[in-house]
């Protein structure tokens, strides 16, 4: 409805782009308003949902119910009609008889269409064909739909049921998620399961006694990951701010402050490309636990994924991109150097930037001349190893150049105590034994600053306040970041991040 429209008045149809069906619906809306029917009343009391009616139905009960939802099929007849009402939980058939609801209400019904939202009060019964239904005694229009919704049609051809005119165009479904949710009920189930996954993870963490916290989204210095940020400006302070790319450095400040375990479900933002696994706005949960290391965190991650899968899927295995994936611990462990040796046939141990660049070139990789040795290794791994890791695998012990915030490995000089969990050919989480030596951390960040001077826009910035916090002393600590969207993709079997985000970012129409 446009801002100046009144439900009882015709409004201003010229403001809408009309086709014939919309013109007819606008005429119906006008006719309803002129006959004293408000097409958009304020409320309706709902007592039951479709699924509970179908589940709890008893032949001799004739239970009184009040339901509301959208008309999805409709058969208008002389003095009696049928339609299917879709609510949040499913569909139920409604039987409407003029003698029961009255002449006025039945005439209102004659002006309704598929897509209109209605309320029905009546009693349950079973039709002669055996379909559990609601016999309407009262009927109310709750919202007149001015745009026709795309309803798939079925036709039997050579004994086979063929569906056509389905709302199946991927990009249109992403752009008009509200229509997608109406006409494709399976989509709802993905997002219901997403909510269950997040809820279980939250309970898993709080059950350990760890505190859920909130940290700034607008940050004066961005950090905690290798990524380019979105920038904005605060007028009152006259300063540039960044949408966070990670919340790591703020959560570590809380460990310094005396909390032994903190976590946050965070919206993060990275100004990077868009593909099946990347959206510029995404969700991750980060966890930091004092006095633990990355070996301990690996066991926790195994339990987190295993228990979450069992809780939401009633199974410790999933099917993802056509692969049967088992989430039952223990997961395979493989160092990053061994993984590259296994899948590429080259040994990157002790190789300098010049040698790594030649190795990458021999593998067919075209590299930006500005990137460092750590980025070269990352490119080799991402192109030739990661897609082949289908079963859950911990990739461990990264070169120090790749991980400026991780503690140096206690027995492997030049490496750090870090792991990534890969499953289904994609990284799902990242973890360190966190670096807590402020002197070494400053050296690492200053080295990153030099990479920025070389042109690496994703290199980290020296954060003096974070370094000051470390100088007060941070206990040994294990940190973890889990990509919630990717975890949901895995557990729901969706092959694109856009299928697990209600409103993904797209190019302008």
Describe the protein:
The chain has 3 domains: 13-143, OB fold (Dihydrolipoamide Acetyltransferase, E2P) (Beta Barrel), CATH 2.40.50; 153-183, no CATH class; 187-331 and 391-499, Bira Bifunctional Protein, Domain 2 (BirA Bifunctional Protein, domain 2), CATH 3.30.930. Strands 8-12-13-20-19-18-17-16 form an 8-stranded mixed β-sheet, sandwiched between helices. Strands 1-2-3-5-4 form a 5-stranded mixed β-barrel. A 3-stranded antiparallel β-sheet has the order 9-11-10, with no helix packed on it. It is built from 15 helices and 20 strands. By secondary structure, the chain is α+β, with helices and mostly antiparallel strands. Helices cover 32% and strands 27% of the residues. The radius of gyration is 29 Å and the shape is elongated. The model is unreliable at 1-16 (pLDDT under 50). A hairpin with a 2-residue loop joins strand 18 and strand 19.
SSE layout and pairing:
Layout: H1 20-34, H2 50-56, E1 64-75, E2 80-87, E3 90-97, H3 98-101, H4 103-110, E4 117-126, E5 132-143, E6 153-157, E7 160-164, H5 170-175, H6 177-183, H7 185-206, E8 211-212, E9 218-219, E10 231-234, E11 239-243, H8 248-256, E12 261-269, E13 281-290, H9 294-313, E14 317-320, E15 323-326, E16 332-335, H10 336-344, H11 353-362, H12 373-384, E17 393-399, E18 415-423, E19 426-433, H13 438-454, H14 464-471, E20 477-483, H15 484-492
Parallel strand pairs: 3-5, 8-12, 16-17
Antiparallel strand pairs: 1-2, 1-4, 2-3, 4-5, 6-7, 9-11, 10-11, 12-13, 13-20, 14-15, 17-18, 18-19, 19-20
Helix pairs in contact: 6-7, 7-9, 11-12, 13-14
């Amino acid at each position: 409805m446009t801002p100046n429209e009144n439900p009882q008045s015709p409004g201003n149809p010229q403001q809408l782009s009309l086709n014939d069906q919309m013109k007819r619906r606008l005429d119906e809306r006008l006719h309803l308003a002129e006959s004293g029917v408000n097409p958009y009343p304020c409320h309706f009391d709902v007592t039951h949902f479709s699924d509970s009616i179908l589940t709890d139905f008893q032949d001799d009960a004739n239970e009184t119910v009040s339901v509301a939802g959208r008309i999805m099929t409709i058969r208008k007849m002389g003095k009696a009609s049928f339609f299917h009402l879709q609510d949040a939980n499913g569909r139920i058939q409604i039987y409407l008889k003029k003698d029961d609801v009255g002449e006025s209400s039945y005439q209102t019904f004659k002006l309704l269409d598929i897509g209109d939202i209605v309320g029905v009060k009546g009693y349950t019964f079973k039709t002669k064909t055996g379909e559990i239904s609601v016999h309407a005694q009262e009927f109310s229009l709750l919202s007149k739909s001015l745009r026709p919704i795309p309803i798939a049609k079925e036709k039997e051809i050579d004994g086979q049921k063929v569906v056509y005119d389905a709302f199946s165009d991927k990009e249109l479904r992403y752009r008009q998620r509200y229509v997608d949710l109406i006409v494709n009920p399976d989509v709802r189930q993905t997002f219901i399961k997403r909510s269950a996954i997040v809820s279980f993870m939250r309970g898993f963490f709080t059950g350990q006694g760890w505190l859920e916290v909130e940290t700034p989204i607008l940050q004066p210095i961005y950090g905690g990951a290798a990524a380019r940020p979105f920038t904005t400006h605060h007028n009152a302070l006259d300063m540039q701010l960044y949408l966070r790319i990670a919340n790591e450095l703020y959560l570590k400040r809380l460990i310094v402050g005396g909390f032994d375990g903190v976590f946050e479900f965070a919206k993060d933002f990275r100004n990077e490309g868009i593909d099946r696994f990347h959206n510029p706005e995404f969700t991750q949960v980060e966890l930091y636990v004092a006095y633990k290391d990355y070996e301990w965190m690996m066991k926790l991650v195994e339990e987190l994924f295993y228990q979450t899968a069992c809780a939401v899927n009633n199974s410790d295995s999933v099917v993802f991109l056509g692969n049967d994936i088992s989430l039952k611990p223990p997961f395979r462990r493989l160092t990053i150097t061994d993984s590259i040796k296994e899948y590429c046939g080259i040994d990157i141990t002790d190789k300098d930037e010049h040698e790594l660049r030649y190795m990458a070139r021999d593998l067919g990789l075209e590299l930006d001349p500005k990137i460092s040795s750590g980025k070269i290794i990352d490119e080799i791994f991402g192109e030739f190893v990661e897609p082949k890791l289908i079963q859950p695998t911990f990739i461990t012990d990264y070169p120090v150049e790749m991980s400026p915030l991780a503690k140096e490995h206690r027995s492997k000089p030049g490496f750090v105590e870090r792991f990534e969990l890969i499953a289904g050919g994609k990284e799902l989480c990242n973890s360190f034994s966190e670096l807590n030596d402020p002197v070494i951390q400053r050296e690492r960040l200053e080295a990153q600053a030099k990479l920025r001077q070389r042109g690496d826009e994703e290199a980290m910035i020296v954060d003096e306040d974070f370094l000051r916090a470390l100088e007060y002393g941070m206990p040994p600590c294990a940190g973890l970041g889990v990509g919630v969207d990717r975890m949901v993709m895995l557990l729901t079997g969706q092959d694109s991040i856009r299928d697990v985000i209600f409103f993904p970012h797209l190019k302008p129409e």
